[in-house]
Amino acid sequence: RSDKKKIMKIHPSSVLMLAVASFTTRRALVKAFASNSVTSSTASSAIRRSGRQPLAFFSTMTDDAKAPTEEVDVSSNPLLDQAGLPRFSTIDPENLTPAVKHLLAKIDTDFTALESQLSSASPYDDVLPKVEQIQFPLGYVWGIAGHLNGVKNGEELRGAYELNQPSVVQAMTKFSQSRALYDALEGIEKSWEGDDSSSFEMKQKKRAVSNSIRSMKLGGVGLDGEEKERFNTMRMRLAELSTTFGNHVMDSTKAYAYTVTDPKDVEGVPESARGMWANAHYQYLVSKAAEGEAGDIEKPNAEAGPWRVTLDGPSYVAALSHLPNRDIREKIYKASVTRASEITDYTAEGDEKAIERDNVPLIYEILKLKSEMSTLLGFSNYAEQSLASKMAPTVDSVKELSDLIAEKALPAALKDMEEVTNMARANGGEEYSEENLEKLQPWDTTFWTERLKESKFDLKEEELRPYFALPAVLDGMFGLVERIFGIEVKAADGEAEVWHPDVKFFNVYDVESKEQIASFYLDPYSRPENKRGGAWMDVCIGKSDACERKIPVAYLTCNGSPPVGDDKPSLMTFREVETLFHEFGHGLQHMLTTANVGDVAGINGVEWDAVELPSQFMENWCYDKETVYGFAKHYETGEPLPEEMFEKLNEQKTFAAGLMACRQLYFGMLDMELHSNFDPTAVENGGETIFDVQKRVASKYIPHTMPLDIDRFLCAFNHIFGGGYAAGYYSYKWAEVMSADAFGAFEDVGLDNEEAVQEVGRRFRNTVLSLGGGVEPMEVFKQFRGREPTPDALLRHNGLM
Fold first, then answer.
1. φ, ψ dihedrals at 514, nearest 5°
2. DSSP secondary structure string, 456-484?
């Protein structure tokens, strides 16, 4: 046991967090789709934390850079009406630039005045709360812009966002590299030496101060002269590269579609998938129709087609899982794994801009800049810099945990793959014989894994959908949190303006006090034309005494299956149900916080490798009988899910768990290897390429499903190159150890022991969901569980013990 505890034990220097004293109110937690997943259930969760960023993130202004200060007319700008919720129905992209210019000028004036008043003797109340107040208005505006850029993306908005990003990044450098602010914070921390106060209020303040100090160090506050200028130039370039990388992935995903016209090629495909593809084809024709002609287009026909398959998550997963035509699956798969790369052989016909979206040179430049930047800060590599603000103490500790899990998962994965292969050879016909096919190809594994699951459990995904109607699932999920956390969620449509008619709005109340404590938006459906893929929780308004914000507000964004036809609700896959629970878990940590220091309230200030604890914890309830029967009712008849279906659903929980675990370990260690041991300059002299590293890591963790020579998964790995996941993807497994162990506390008392479950649930709310970043995560976990976490529960839940 000692080796397991050592892996999870927090390093003394990791008590501090990275994300503090930031200017935005956004921190997105994304569950992004892994394009070359082994099965339809491996839509891996990912974090894109692009909001409430640390001061270090904005340390990018050269000494002579100035924010725009000209006067602009802002009297009627809806982005500057910040008294309540965003005015989405009246916000236009053209509002962004005037609002940003106005607020940047105000920030420059206000912070300059604050700096002149700071000293090493300044008290806390005259420092961080003032900084938070100065930064909030721009954070409100930039948070809305970032949110809309993800859910209502368009050329005008994208252009306005990219136009203003450099000015925003430049202006914020004044905070991250302010010696006056740094000296004041150090003075506060020194004045608190010997203060052993255990009050939550004091713990929050100490965390906020110590994290600010560290984020400023990571932001280059200690650099001078040419080093400082070079550091800031690199940070500016990295911000630009990250945005461009993500845009390339999104545009490449949107640019591809494959139209199926022969009904034989969709034989056996679930009705929901056929309906989705038929509707996609119809929407495509409508978008191309001349004015006034859209009404003449024949309505979508799920039975007759045509069927338009895209690389959007729900469409792509359904295609790889169910299309019987092997050649079509191959084309779609290769189009996916070569997105945004130098390989254009598999792009859509007529996509002349594909080569312009090549992310390969961007990856090398990103890796080079991060390596150089880390050296300037005194680290051996970027991975060390990344881990300075996480629970994991070293790269070796990440590797230890990964290898510990791999030791159990890899033999299981090899066995899983053997079963899948046998299934294909026995049922796939001559083309799958050993003589014609040495081993299954990547476009085969998902399809035959799905057939094996159906065969083993005599249960098809399509049979479950009628029992998972979105309105019922929401009611059941809200019933669960009322039962275990003592909160009530009420629909409040009409109380807030929304950005799309499908968006719902809810208020959250404490059951005991009857007081409203939070609100959230839910944007549930996929919209490939203007919405980024994946699923995420985002901050709309954070809780903060300094900014007089008492009611936290969240965005919950999914890309689930939209309703097909006018007479049906959205009928969800079970994975979509899990995803909804996952994102709601993130939202709960934001909404149920009792922290009032904005920089450590809710999800702010929570170490990266701990932030997935509440989200992954919530997924476990999708297998709890009382919870499931709280929503699993046939949408037409109201009949509950048959008992045998529920039992089969539970049996499926560990199906292909080895394949899943190895896939996640592969992603995490590939990320870590690229940011620790890989030399991005060596390729110029014949050294390893990024794709050589990919294959080397794959050979250790997924030798059974090695990537193709053309595989360019890295070019769409938004998690680490377009978001905040660099040297942090391992966090999934790290946090999963804690989330599984946390759910184990409920299992220990008996899930059918209602009184005990409620008692443990209140304790989870009062620790994990309440304390936010105000207390370091290992202490939070120990307050809840009474000890440090071990991997035992995770291995047990995955059937690997």
1. 70, 5
2. HHS--HHHHGGG-BHHHHHHHHHHHHHHH
φ, ψ of residue 560 in degrees (nearest 5)? -80, 175
Q: List the catalytic residue out of 461, 583, 673, 736.
A: 583
Quote the pLDDT of residue 529. Answer: 84
Q: What are phi and psi of 59, to 5 degrees?
A: -80, 70
At residue 31, the 3 state secondary structure works out as: strand
Nearest to 405 by CA among 668, 613, 622, 782: 668
Instruction: Pick the closest to residue 581 from 473, 472, 492, 489 (CA basis).
Output: 473
Residue 549, SS3? strand
pTM more than 0.85: yes
| pLDDT in the model for residue 43 | 29
Query: Which residue type, as a one-letter code, is found at position 796?
Result: R
Look up 450 and say whether it is catalytic. Answer: no
Tokens 């790369």 map to which residue? 341
For 488, phi then psi, to 5°, come to -120, 130
**Cα angle, residue 570 at apex, residues 566 and 465 outer, rounded to 5°:** 120
A 10 A CB-CB count for 135 gives 27
Mean pLDDT (whole number) for 344-363: 90
pLDDT of residue 1: 26
| Per-residue pLDDT reduced to its tens digit, 686-742 | 999 999 999 999 999 999 999 999 999 999 999 899 888 899 999 989 999 999 999
Judge whether 713 and 35 are in contact, CB under 8 Å.
yes
Using CA atoms of 20, 22, 25, 31 in order, give the dihedral in degrees to the nearest 10: -60
